[in-house]
Amino acid sequence: MKKSLLFLSFLLFNSFLSFAAETPDPVLDIDGKEIRAGVEYYILPVMRGFGGGVTFGRSTGNESCPLGVVQERSEVEPGRPVTFTPVNPKKGVVRVSTDLNIKFADAFTICIQSNVWKLDFDQEIGQYFILTNGVEGNPGRETIDNWFKIEKYSDRDYKLVFCPTVCNTCKVICKDVGIFIDQDKTKRLALSDEPFRVMFRKA
Predict the structure, then answer these.
(1) Which pTM does this prediction carry?
(2) d(Cα 148, Cα 94) in Å, to the nearest integer?
(3) With contact defined as beta carbons under 8 Å apart, do 191 and 160 qualify?
(4) Cα–Cα separations (whole angstroms), residue 199 to 3, 54, 91, 129
(5) Which of 19, 82, 109, 180 is an S-S bond match for 190, by CB 3.0 to 4.6 Å?
């Protein structure tokens, strides 16, 4: 009987260790606190002197809508707060390397659209940009362009990545989100070989 209990305890302990090892680290804000789903945060650059936080911007090309996702020109501007929604909305903590939706906090804009981020390809420029008007939730093939990840860049810095895993049969691009500077000097969030190093501050 004692051997059976010891064996059962051993199995349970191993299962706990396995679960703990598989759980990704939580994403932390600049105060060292875990980022929570549904709570508003500013996405700010780590590098000083190169612009401010992330906000709405005009669309690419000649289109008025949907709105683009851009970086503020002035570093004193924190941008517009966003919320994060994990692929499992019941999860309260946002974790690295997991699929999530990013959405600007509710705001009135010139476009009748959602504020959820999505990936969009500009054929004229030949570049993938981050725009709004994505779909929140409903993970799968139809929403593949709406899922992003937060990855560690260094001990306290992070980067945004597009590499969705919500569709097992889909072929997807896996690339960092960086900054693309267009002709009028607008700093657009776009897929890039150079990641946009970011940190998060609670709004």
Answers:
(1) 0.87
(2) 12
(3) no
(4) 51, 11, 21, 20
(5) 180
